[in-house]
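To: structure desk
From: M.T.
Subject: fold request, one chain
Message: Could you run this one when you get a chance? Sequence is below, nothing fancy, just the single chain.
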Amino acid sequence: MDKGRIKTIERSKGYGFIETDEGHKIFFHQRWLRKVKFKDLEEGDEVVFSVNMGTRGPRAYNLNLADNEELETVTAGRRGDELFKD
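Reply: Done. Structure tokens follow.
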């Protein structure tokens, strides 16, 4: 899993961006969260996530707060690609 910090959140649109330690900007959507509610996320929160490549660039899925991930390891029941089917 990758780590980063939430850089921006667009609450009314249900998405945000993560910035990694390497300075990469990664998109996330509220549908792709894991064990955390979108309303509970704040800019600056440290998060862990998996990444796949979307049509517009990298996107994070199975996103969780880093503190929660350290307490519990959860295996996703679906493959990452299945999350993004239209």
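Reply (cont.): The chain has one domain: 2-78. Let me know if you need anything else for the meeting.
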